[in-house]
Amino acid sequence: MRLLSMEELEARKEVKGDFEKWALMKEISWRQKSREVWLREGDRNTGFFHKMANSHRRRNCLSKIKINRTWIDGEDAARLEEAFTEEEVFSALSDLNGDKAPGPDGFSLSFWKFSWDFAKEEVMGFLKEFHEHDRFVRSLNSTFLVLILKKAGAKDLRDFIPISLVGGLYKLLAKMLANRFKKVVGKVVSSTQNAFVEGRQILDTALIANEAIDSMLKRNESGVLCKLDIEKAYDHLNWNFLLLVLQRMGFGEKWTGWISWCISIATFSVLINGPPTGFFNSSRGCRIKGRSGDGALVSHLLFADDTLVFCDASQDQMTYFSWLLMWFEAISGLRINLDKSEILPVGRVENLEVLALEVGCKVGKLPTSYLGIPLGANHKSVAVWDGVEERFRKRLTMWKRQFISKGGRITLIRSTLSSMPIYLISLLRIPRVCFANERETLWRRVIRRKFGEEEGGWYTRDVREGFGVGLWKDIRKEGALLQNKVVFSMGNGRRVKFWKDNWCGNFTLCNFFPSLYAFASYKEAWLEELWDHLGEEGVWSPSFSRPFNDWEVEKVERLLLTIRGRRLNPLLEDRML
């Protein structure tokens, strides 16, 4: 060992100063991250600050964020992962069609139904093993693929429709998982998506789209409507994207694991002219402003992968939209088929070609068709029915070439031709009871915001001429004919009127007891207002503006006998039957 020279001492001093400076800066950094303000009285150890900062990071990390009730709570997640019961299994088995073609195991569902009494132990054992270990034998998820021609002379693979023949046990398991899932899917799927959610239907989307276009035209607003076609949506779906979405929506680890196992171990064998080929795995894909004041915002509508997006006629907005589609494709593994997608002008749009070029799709025009329903068309126009008429002509031309008896022709007309216009008619004739009872659906909110609603919320207000498309006008007009014959089922009594609504039989009390109604204190009273909650059961207490005469006591007696036994239930909503 030797003493350091002057140069070495200066170098060590400089290095030591640099070390202390960087150590101080690191300490300040961790102190700022830890947000601790009591440093002078506490520990100045950098390790302490490091732990505190990591703690804050874990606490502030956003694994998921709730937007308009778009995740399920812990109770629903736990219910999805409960053990399978024999009643649940048999109920799912009974709901399945037993006559479908069997899969690789050779057993149709009719076999499992017929042999349930002695096969149920094996089935329950299979489900118990799946519940406990989150997996089952891979061979149970083998599938035969049958290719069905889309058109005569097809050669390209895209011209065939693949039909999956799945094994019976896996089909039963999938049905049970679907039954559980459909109980919570409405909580996590946006109201703009109307496919595969109980209580929503395809016609809702078409009605909303027509009303939205009408509102823009009546207010002289310009905009564009992007009609998107997602290519082979179920075949190209990225599994990691699907599982990540399930996790972010609050589904439990076990449930997510079940779904991951079911979709990832599937093997397929194509039946070519009868015999199967070898099995192969898949790497992705799945089988399978108004009169009432505030406007109802509609930015996009979906039915499965059929998508409509409402945009302003702005090049900047279309640029952002094209970026959004690009990111969506990158994350989900899906692909927008721009050759089949189109941009439709609503109102006067001068730079339409520029907007279409920004997205990369073709230019279309209104009226068009969406989900088989005319979009942006005058519903009274004969042209609305051109598609139905064309299908009629094609069927009749084909039948004329065949030797069919008169009785056979009548059968074909009743079974085929008579059902063709039903889909289109169903939108033009939506029952009024839907508006009364489907209070949370998107289509009802749009109609209510646009036309307003009468007291009680059972009907919209009268529709003025020139306001709104003809669809809802006709529905409102026809509903008015039935208004006096509507019967109500009372719940909490907040939307049914005591005297004027039909709730206690095939009559209204004001018509059945006109002399009593004449001096009733409150002729517009709701049921809730005339129900006295005194005691455990409660009693009716209609009020009158004067004492009864002797000859009116009997009528009051009959009134009380008529409503006796009918009680309000504060936990239920009033409904229209």
Automatic annotation (TrEMBL):
<dbReference type="InterPro" id="IPR052343">
    <property type="entry name" value="Retrotransposon-Effector_Assoc"/>
</dbReference>
<protein>
    <submittedName>
        <fullName>Transposon TX1 uncharacterized 149 kDa protein</fullName>
    </submittedName>
</protein>
<dbReference type="Pfam" id="PF00078">
    <property type="entry name" value="RVT_1"/>
</dbReference>
<feature type="domain" description="Reverse transcriptase">
    <location>
        <begin position="129"/>
        <end position="375"/>
    </location>
</feature>
<dbReference type="InterPro" id="IPR000477">
    <property type="entry name" value="RT_dom"/>
</dbReference>
